[in-house]
Amino acid sequence: MRRFGELIGVAVAGLTARKVRTLLILLGPILGVAAIVAAIGINESSKGDLKAKLRELGTDLIVANAQDAIGGFGADPRIPEEAAARVARLPDVTSVTGTLQLSNIVTLPFAAAEDYYRAFPVPIIATHLNLPTTMDVPLVSGRFLNGFDEASASRVAVIGRDLANEYGYIANEARSIQLGGVNYGVVGVLDYVLLEPSMDSAVFITFANAVEDWDVDDPDPTRLYIRAPTNTRYVAEEIPTVVSLGGPDGANTKVPTDLLDAQSQVDENLNNLTKMMGGLALVVGGVGIANVMSISVIQRSSEIGIRRALGHSRGTIAFQFLIEALVIGVMGGILGAGVGAGVVWMVSEMRDYTMILSVSGLFRWASVSVGVAVVAGLYPSTKAARLEPLETLRLG
């Protein structure tokens, strides 16, 4: 045990005697382990963020878009109100909202901004009155459109949160905007709609306004948002048949959270590619360890010769260099895991991810670093053990 302690002391002294060389040797395992830990950690953290959003949003919203079979040739496809009513009567459906996006209407916060907003038009959406309930989105300020607005075709509008920020809207202020030259009073601001980001920059009006002010002959919606807390996938499959009464499909459906759910699944190909790239960095680092330590053997030939002359066996000399490789692997693994964890934390903070980092994974990749370093140290240690005392005089 005492001899083993002495060997460790000699190995550590050999590494610390040439700090720059040791640092260069350490770079290989540090970069390899850090690359693997960071890439896998960032990948898992981004998935954790998506999973958190899925828990927050739920997976029970269905979007149904009209198809040409009902709209007729030469007309924009629509979903008739009676078809929307049939969807609302499905047993698992709790809420249905129809929307119709209007076109060729320039929206202005003030008259002087016409050139800009003509080039970058704002979406105008005619909507049923229960949109916030169906989308499960609150209002930041004010109120949403109500029954009186619909019955009287009052020129009032609700705007998305991004648009409110762009217009410099102050909560609950008396503010009007121009829709195609017609003044509308802003009565509320809808919060962020995570499943339909386009709504964040939209203006919402009633269907009555669409008919009264914009000559919409057919006030039927082109899109339905359906909330079905149970049997969501089954309801999504049944909606086209319910809309078209068994004829050619009059609507196609999708569940927006399916995309997030797919993104949140473990992408084995990406993980495997990440591990392969990190492993390649470790192999390159191992080659560097073998190369630098082989040069070190020549540089320390006098030390090896003296120790051999004093009676140290070949095994002792080989073991000393293996310990040096082991120390490099341990230090490189620990530092690499620390650097990789730091990168994951930094990216998670910058992107507001839920940081996910496997402690067992840190130990596993640090252990791989140790294994690579020991394997890389086999050749230099064998080379050192084979040196004869007289040969060291020729090497210097």
Key attributes of the depicted protein:
396 residues; alpha+beta; 11-stranded mixed β-sheet; 59% helix
Characterization of this structure:
This protein is α+β, with helices and mostly antiparallel strands and 396 residues long. The chain has two domains: 2-55 and 266-395, no CATH class; 60-254, no CATH class. Helix content is 59%, strand content 14%. It has 16 helices and eleven strands. The chain has helices at 2-17, 19-57, 68-71, 81-88, 114-119, 131-135, 147-152, 161-167, 207-214, 232-244, 257-264, 268-299, 301-309, 314-351, 359-386, 389-395; strands at residues 61-66, 95-102, 107-108, 124-127, 139-142, 156-160, 175-179, 182-190, 203-205, 223-227, 251-254. Strands 1, 2, 3, 4, 5, 6, 7, 8, 9, 10 and 11 form an eleven-stranded mixed β-sheet that branches. The longest helix is centred in the first third of the chain and has 39 residues, at 19-57. The radius of gyration is 34 Å and the shape is elongated. It starts with a helix and ends with a helix. Residues 69-74 have low confidence and may be disordered.
Question: In terms of per-residue confidence, which ranges show pLDDT below 50 for 5 or more consecutive residues?
Answer: 69-74
Largest sheet: 11 strands, mixed
Note the run of SSEs as H and E. HHEHHEEHEHEHEHEEEHEHEHHHHHH
The residue fraction in helices comes out at 55-70%
Strand tally is 11
What's the gyration radius in Å? Answer: 34 Å
Strand content: 5-15%
**Backbone shape:** elongated
- What is the mean predicted local confidence, pLDDT? 79
- Given helix and strand content, the structural type is alpha+beta
The total tally of domains equals 2
Q: How many H/I helical runs?
A: 16
Subunit organisation of the chains: single chain
User: What is the straight-line distance between the termini?
Assistant: 32 Å
